[in-house]
Design a protein that fits this description.
The chain has 262 residues and is mainly beta. It has a single domain, classed as Acyl-CoA thioesterase, double hotdog domain (Porin, Beta Barrel), CATH 2.40.160. Helix content is 13%, strand content 40%. The chain is built from 4 helices and 13 strands. A 13-stranded antiparallel sheet has the order 1-2-4-5-6-3-10-13-12-11-9-8-7. A hairpin with a 3-residue loop joins strand 4 and strand 5. The radius of gyration is 18 Å and the shape is globular. Keywords: Hydrolase.
């Protein structure tokens, strides 16, 4: 990537801005009926981050996917400055298409400060040397190299898997956090399915999603994404996720609930 050519994620965050409203054109077509949720989540975080001081970095986000986004229609991100503090800023983001809300997000930003540095011992679901390359049938995955377990032969990449961006991403904490948010939506929905259910059966959709950013993220480096199913009830499946670097350091944690109608 040359210094004059922005990365693909930086291009997705190249908004037209009117005050605290940010407008982003969307792809004209894709593999499914709705826009990829990770894309809208990443753009919502990017819009929120444009309204805070650069020394405050993404700390966490919590969002609801209200309805599916449509291809080829601009998305407006309306940012509400909920609170500006000395250490933390809080933002609420509403994403709309043609006046209809498709996503609601609350995001927090924090000035880094010294403190304890501890994590629960890592879970190792698949060794890198055992994992094999895969190209999932999802256009949004084209920006990434993905390595999965040898027995993962379906259309989608099912965690645990290894993942990295194919291209270098700008050394910018907000852009890299948006990249992590984008890729964190790969994998939770398949894991949230009822046990033993064929991924090709039924209807599935993400309902809500959360990310906690723990440590610096380098998108071009390999990371392992572990996702664990916690519960299935009322046609909803709940999962938690953990993103580790090659040294076993916990970079981010996630959670998601998905709708599975069989």
């Amino acid at each position: 990537m040359s210094s004059t050519a922005p990365s693909w994620i930086a291009q997705l965050l190249d908004f037209a801005r009117d005050g605290d409203t940010f407008i982003a054109p969307q792809p004209t077509e894709g593999p499914g009926r709705s826009l990829f949720g990770g894309l809208i989540a990443a753009q919502a975080l990017g819009a929120a981050g444009r309204t805070v001081e650069p020394d405050k970095l993404p700390q966490s986000l919590h969002l609801y996917f209200v309805r599916g986004g449509q291809y080829g229609i601009d998305v407006e991100f309306h940012v509400e400055r909920t609170r500006d503090g000395r250490s933390f800023d809080t933002r609420r983001v509403t994403a709309k298409q043609e006046g209809k809300t498709i996503l609601e997000m609350i995001a927090s930003f924090h000035v880094p400060e010294p403190g304890a540095d501890w994590q629960r011992p890592e879970v190792l679901g698949v060794e890198f040397d055992v994992a094999v390359p895969k190209e999932p049938s999802l256009t949004a995955a084209d920006f990434f190299d993905i390595r999965v377990r040898p027995d993962d032969v379906g259309a989608f990449a099912v965690p645990p898997f290894w993942i990295r961006t194919k291209d270098e991403i700008e050394d910018d904490a907000l852009i890299r956090a948006c990249t992590l948010t984008f890729m964190s939506d790969f994998g939770p929905v398949p894991v949230a399915r009822p046990d033993g259910t064929d991924l090709r059966q039924g209807f599935a959709a993400s309902l809500d999603h959360a990310v906690w950013f723990h440590r610096p993220f380098v998108p071009r480096d390999w990371h392992r994404y572990e996702v664990t199913r916690l519960n299935n009830t009322d046609s909803r499946g709940l999962v938690t996720g953990a993103l580790y670097d090659t040294g076993g350091v916990l970079i981010a944690s996630t959670s998601q609930e998905a709708l599975w109608r069989l």
